[in-house]
Amino acid sequence: MLNLAKSKDKTEKYLFKLEDGNLIESVLIFSDKRVTECISSQIGCKYNCLFCESGKKGFTRNLTVSEILNQVLFVKKKIESNLNNIVFTGIR
User: Fold this and answer.
1) Residue 56 and residue 65: Cα distance in Å, rounded?
2) Is residue 78 helix, strand or coil?
3) Helix, strand or coil for residue 72?
4) Confidence tier at 81 by pLDDT (50, 70, 90)
5) DSSP per position, 24-67
6) What is the domain partition of the chain in residue ranges?
């Protein structure tokens, strides 16, 4: 992990550097009833939507299974509560 940013509402954003040098993010969201992790599944995007900054960078690749699982396992070790939900996000 390269960086951890925490917001006032206790949301945590983790920045990871992959073996090939690409960067991905995972976001941990705490609410009254559950803990949700939003994990990356791709680097970049094939679409060039006008409203989205990430798509303008182009598509690099899909993440491997181990890169996806490592996001969950890393964050799970860092929190004391149960991880209730996992949400896949497409891009960083």
Assistant:
1) 25
2) helix
3) helix
4) confident
5) EEEEEEE-SS-EEEEEE-EEE-S---TT-TGGGG-EEEEPPHHH
6) 3-89
Place of tokens 């990356």: 40
Rounded CA-CA distance 83/80 in Å is 9
Confidence of residue 92 (pLDDT cuts 50, 70, 90): low
H/E element, 82: none
Q: How far apart are CA 85 and CA 33, in angstroms?
A: 11
- Encoded amino acid at 71, one letter: Q
pTM: 0.85
Q: At 76, is the secondary structure helix, strand, or coil?
A: helix
CA distance 60 to 72: 22
